[in-house]
Amino acid sequence: MIDGVHAKHFTGAGVVIHHSDSLGLIAVDRNTVAISISDIMVSFAAYPIEIPGQVIFLHPFHYFALVAYDPLTLGVGASVIRASKLLTEPALRRGDSVYLVRLIDSLHAKSRKSIVTNWQAINICSSDFPRYHAMNTEVIELDTDSDIELSGVLTDEQGRVQALWASISSQLFGCGKEGDHQFVVGIPIHLISQVLEKIISGAPGPFRLINGIRRPMPFVRLLEVEIYPTLLTEASNYGLSDRWVQALAEKDPERRQVLQIIGCFAGSKAETLCEGDMILAIDKKPITCFLDIENACQKLDHSVGSDGMLNMTIFRQGKEIDLMVGTDVRDGNGTTRMVNWCGCIVQNPHSAVRALGFLPKEGHGVYVSRLCWKSHP
């Protein structure tokens, strides 16, 4: 019960994205695998067996986790299970046809043809105590009831996976509706395939012991700020010049938006950014969506002698400003250590705490995750 996790047991569907003689990998949403310190059991629709799994990667922003399993424990089932083919291009757009494939309680697949109705930034309000939530991510909505909590995948006619149909948890307040609310959206598969490619190629990162083999798990370079889009019409009312409104609209005529800072993570190297800043450009190139920022961060990883700084143009309090903004490199380990002392569960401040701006000035500290009370007779 760390990182503000709101329950003890979670169940959901994932998709096998890699299957070899020594390693199997499953992509699953963070409402199914919430934290790294957990016991995982994996059941397969293709073969009747249940085996243990191991959490190996939790994405800091994009609400997915990767779970490893040992193919040797599958026995003859190892020859039956296949990894799904991932289709990263072209990106899904409004009006595209997809197949929504989900697992019902009996582990039988259920599918239906659906239409993409929307593609928008996800916005999850903070809960009453800090816990992980998706941010800086565009998700897919369908012409189906999003309150149906069955997770799964979105595929094309050939069965190639285009998105993870993910269960999202948020907390409701007021109007007599207090409590956790579950809904489902699509997470584009290219966000997952980028991490998968790094794992398969052995990209540098912290080593994890997986199925008895030490393997490097990739780092992720991030601009550690929470961002949400603002319509260009609203940005114009705040004083954004017609020149920039036109430039951003021409760059992305479908979205017609500018990205605005909601808040900076405590301890982040992006401390030169402030709440309310609008991101106009990186290296003088207009920025209109989260993918633009991620591509700029990845470009730093491939630049020889890079100092990890982004040359950004922002709009702040009526003025256009050029800033050098730092990026952070994070792993996907999540919280790996906790101490239970007299019913007080302590840990390092996790990302949801830092997103609220809380971190001692030393850059590290102890966070009390939970208190366990004992009643006396």
Task: Provide an overview of this structure.
This protein is mainly β. The protein has three domains: 2-84 and 208-216, Beta Barrel (Thrombin, subunit H), CATH 2.40.10; 96-192, Thrombin, subunit H, CATH 2.40.10; 220-330, PDZ domain (Pdz3 Domain). 12% of the residues lie in helices and 39% in strands. Strand 9 (152-155) and strand 10 (161-172) form a beta hairpin. The longest helix is centred in the middle third of the chain and has 13 residues, at 189-201. The chain is globular, with a radius of gyration of 21 Å. The model has no long low-confidence stretch (mean pLDDT 90).
Unreliable stretches: none
Alpha-carbon Rg, integer: 21 Å
The percentage helix is 10-25%
List how many beta strands DSSP finds: 24
Q: What is the CATH topology classification name of the largest domain?
A: Pdz3 Domain
* Alpha-beta classification: mainly beta
CATH class annotation of the largest domain: Mainly Beta
CATH architecture level-2 label of the largest domain: Roll
Mean pLDDT: 90
Give the SSE map:
Blueprint: E1 15-19, E2 24-29, E3 40-43, E4 50-58, E5 64-69, E6 97-103, E7 109-121, E8 138-142, E9 152-155, E10 161-172, E11 179-188, H1 189-201, E12 207-210, E13 213-216, E14 220-222, E15 225-231, H2 232-237, H3 242-251, E16 257-264, E17 278-282, E18 285-286, H4 290-301, E19 309-316, E20 319-326, E21 328-330, E22 338-341, E23 344-347, H5 351-355, E24 367-371
Antiparallel strand pairs: 1-2, 2-5, 3-4, 4-5, 6-7, 6-9, 7-8, 9-10, 10-11, 12-13, 14-21, 15-16, 16-17, 17-18, 17-19, 19-20, 22-23, 23-24
